[in-house]
Amino acid sequence: MSFLSEALWVLLLGSLLGLELIGKVPPTLHTPLMSGANAISGITMLAALTLIIKAGDNLALLLMGSVSLGFALFNVIGGFLVTDRMLAMFSRKNVRNKGN
Amino acid sequence: MFNAGILKFSIDLIAVLLLALGIKGLSKVRSARDANRLAALAMGLAVIGVLVNSLGIGGISTKAWVWIIIGSAIGGALGLVTARRVPMTAMPETVALFNGCGGMSSLLVAIAVAIFPVTENQVEIGKGIVEIISIAVSIFVGAITFSGSLVAMAKLQGWLATPAWTQSKFRHAVNISFAVLCLVAAINLFSQGENSLWLLVIGSSLLGIGVTLPIGGADMPVVISLLNSYSGVAAAAAGFVVGSQLLIVAGAMVGAAGLILTQVMCKGMNRSLVSVLFGGALGAASNTASKGGGEYTNITSCSAEECALTLEAAERVVIVPGYGLAVAQAQHTLREVTRALEAGGIKVAYAIHPVAGRMPGHMNVLLAEADVPYEQLKEMDQINPEFPATDVVLVLGANDVVNPQAKNDPSSPLYGMPVLDVQEARTVFVVKRGMSAGYSGIKNGLFELINTSMVFGDAKKVLGDLLVELKELGVGRKT
Questions:
Q1: Which residues of B are catalytic?
Q2: B-contacting residues in A 20-59 (Cβ below 8 Å)
């Protein structure tokens, strides 16, 4: 039961923190913020990782964990990179498109 | 021997701290880019934490490593390619796609744990009441996120239209029955295993589709933001399933922050979340209302040449970019036109409506891509008092956001939405492909005003013509 009560506290405090973190967001940043937060929600990759590690010899479980990990990493890596690409355009110095 | 558990605990704490700072920093223009990297770093740390902990207790088998590497290589590579290749104009659907995959990941974890109860040294996961509830929540939210995001993406890409039946009241009954189905399946999860599990998966996926499908294109960004918040909830639920507090914190933070962002967006569009979710598409609802007075009279149209002549004589020009500009991918051509104007000593500013482009803030990204100085982008409250002193306003593919009826016609469905007061300027040019209505499907009184001229054509082509005409006039040649 101790994990549960701790976990519920964590859930509550985490939610409150999340509510407070973003107060006023300039419209400019709505899109990047959404995409950045979206990348963070790919944190389920940790769950997938745990699943694979604990799977032992269960091939189906390994496979599902691996697919799940793939989906999550697609979200995480794609999300952060695309956010960075957007934000890079706002910084004045290296705004010019390199190459293309 | 060093204690892997304590090491992991410290890494997790640091990761949570960095994630929180990252989300916070992302809401400020100056710190946004570093904040994004900080968050990415935090995620990397979290992965290291899990690996370290597992190496400490029992180690990781070679087989596990192989599957970890296969999964992350494929997912990571696809993510990398997608992030690099996707054009900036397609950003909304890209975010939707990423988001859907995050939801899918939570869904798969929950299903896997439910089918194959994993026995660990101390606890057996997937047996108790708490575990079943968290599995049910994880599946429910994960499936809704996945199917909803995919529908949102397909609609934004134009692969999917809004079917007519989804606009009737009937759809509420359908969605409620899906929801009831999910509830029943979730309750059955306690007594009987797999069948109700799949029922829950199917029911939740259908619910995600049913809820997202009726929502019109203009409201889609809000939906994506909301689904983004859901995927945080799904991650938190997955955290309960596998017993990871880091996942719970991060998921809860994203879920709550996503909710706030959704609310901020709704405010910018003057829509309430309830009406976005249950009101159906604005366009379809108002079609009948606008049918009567839908015909335009007194339209003045002119060529790019006349437009260029007026621009040449102007001192202050304001550009109002909209969805049409984004679709035509004309931001670079626009930048060339404004460069010529600036070189000719004409003051140029850009009026950015909070929902210009395809989602809030999207237009800023597109213009920044085309190298437009950040200081020239003016927000609505900033630019509205300046319109009376403006010589020429160039409206590029925007419609509803410059509709004066939103201010002075209480019977209009748009009434109350904040708009740009472009009609106050001396001359207004509206570049548009035709007389079709905007997202809202509502007639725009601006087009009939005396000081408004329509320039018909694709935004990119008109701007190209304009550039040629300006060059011929010699604008921007001197200095």
A1: 400
A2: 21-58
